[in-house]
Write a structure and sequence with these properties.
By secondary structure, the chain is mostly helical. The protein is built from 8 helices and no strands. 70% of the residues lie in helices and 0% in strands.
Length: 159
């Protein structure tokens, strides 16, 4: 019996320093958010992304999470942002460059204006908008900073 008690740890780690879910890093938030995002767009019975506004806002948040996570997720996110900048931000298309804020407005208009049957399109416009927000600055940057500050509250700093 004494050997059995010796194998039991003295204390089980509890909620230490606000770590309600234990140690969690940005990828630990970005990966499940991406899974929920994809499931919701495809028609999940629990995650309802059933209109273009929800799809766009989910895309904006997930795009910011991807950039914050770094690595491959950031590469994919930045690639989507680069496509938007290249197609919509080129001076030959509009006569003069609209700027990153203008590209953001174009993306929002593309997500909200048409009647979309499939939510994947406003979701993709939202992802691109989320990536461009911090680069554009202004009010776009404020929204991006709010998303990233909320993320910082949840994420545990690595030591």
């Amino acid at each position: 019996m004494h050997a059995l008690l010796a194998a039991v740890p003295a204390a089980v780690p509890g909620i230490d320093g606000g770590k309600i879910l234990g140690t969690i890093y940005v990828v630990g938030i970005a990966a499940p958010a991406t899974i929920l995002f994809i499931a919701g767009i495809r028609g999940s019975d629990t995650i309802k992304i059933d209109n273009k506004k929800k799809a766009m806002w989910w895309g904006i948040v997930v795009g910011n999470l991807w950039v914050a996570a770094g690595g491959t997720l950031a590469d994919v996110a930045n690639g989507l942002g680069d496509i938007s900048k290249g197609v919509l931000g080129g001076s030959e298309l509009w006569g003069s460059a609209p700027g990153l804020g203008g590209v953001g407005l174009i993306l929002v208009a593309c997500a909200w204006a048409p009647k979309w049957k499939r939510m994947v399109w406003p979701a993709m416009f939202g992802l691109s908008t989320g990536v461009l927000m911090a680069e554009a600055g202004g009010l776009w940057g404020v929204v991006a900073n709010i998303i990233r500050m909320l993320l910082a509250v949840v994420v545990t700093k690595g030591t």
